[in-house]
Amino acid sequence: MIILTHIGETLPEYIDTFLTQLRVFNTQSDIVFLVNMSNVDDPIFIKHNVRTSPIEDLDSTLINKFIDKFGHGDINSSKKHITYGDPDYWCVTATRLFYIYEYCKKFNIKEYFHFENDIMVYTDVNDIMSIIKENNLYENIAITRGTNNKIMTGFMYVGDNDVMGDLLTSFDSYLNNKPELFT
Question: Are the C-beta atoms of residues 99 and 79 closer than 8 Å to each other?
């Protein structure tokens, strides 16, 4: 399964190119896009055979506490269109991991891939899965590194959503000592 996210009222134009290219190599993959309620019925998702789920249905105490603690705006910043450089950009970027976790918890999904929407994927995720399993790589979670203090998930594989939950729960205590991560 591939789980994608976009938080904000306006879908970027490159989403069509991204989904077109993703489907070239992943014709049979189950893809779900977590988006704001206002984007759930956007024709782009039907065009690419992508299911949608509204992030508003996934709000949780964990998400709201994170946004309230580390956001620079208000608790509704995850519903607004945030662009790179905005005060809440990195907080909202991190928040998508919580939405993915909550979605998987709600629908009992254990294993999945997540990609950022502005990258290109040139292989079937089943091929990536085979490499991971055959070589005993990344048993539970693998995330490409962005920088020392930025959360980026160009590629993310989660083999056990409970491990993702543990990781997100650990964010709180870690970030209490590293407030500069969201500045």
Answer: no
